[in-house]
Amino acid sequence: MTAEDERVLVREIEGHLLLAAAREEGRTAAARTASRLGWLTDTQRDALEREFEAEYLTLSRLSWQRTAARAEELRRTYETRYRALRLRLLAWLLFGCAVLAAAGLLVVSVAAWVRRESGPGPLLVGAAVAVPQLGLGAVGDRVVVGLGSATVPDAGRLSAQVVAALRRAGLRGVIQRGWGGLAADGDDVLTIDEVPHALLFPHMAAVVHHAGAGTTAAGLRAGVPAVPVPVRFDAGFWSARLVALGIAPAVVPLRRLAVDALASALVRATREPQYRERACALGARVRDEDGAAPVPAALDRLGG
Q: Model-level pTM?
């Protein structure tokens, strides 16, 4: 049964109830009148009752018809208003999305203009000077290890495993402290805090990272092989993509991280040339890509 059928049925039921009530009221009124006219015969009483009942039915029908018509008018009015309100809300939602997208594009454009006009800031200048002077040997044996915003239950134990894997692979390491608090000391390792990926990664033979979307993109842009150590969320997807693209030899999940597995992946990433070649080729493609260009076109399509 459709909604319209239900409304019709309800109106019919209400009409029958009103008519039944009207008949009862007519009989009651006729009985009250007849009681005051004691001289009426039974035939006259019956005729009076029928007349009262007919009058009450007529009045009830008129009242019910007017009420039903008014109810239908109100229903149509509010249904029209609801549709108009829904269209206005949808229009405002689309307008808000367009404004946010335009604002994001404006921020990116302004930031790019500021970088072009003012040059690198103090942090970038310091990193650019510091990275070549890390004293960790040639690019071929230098690996950066960082987990970004990922946290770990035992930073000391994990740091020791990382250092052991680096030494077993015959590599030197730059360890980013990150939110996990990684740290190590020694002639072949250096612990650093925040340094821009764009300045650090190109100086490395490989990048060991947590496979977050941003760090994965930075590694691809730098054209450096990767050893993904996924922790949670979408890291598993990006790790699998790095392996499928030939940028990473294997995935080493953090929960099952072992020194042998990490050392083996590091040896393959830094000694087998196909990973460096594939990373360089893909990095060149990523650097040539204008990521902001499709945004105005998408906004134009939304605007019709």
A: 0.56
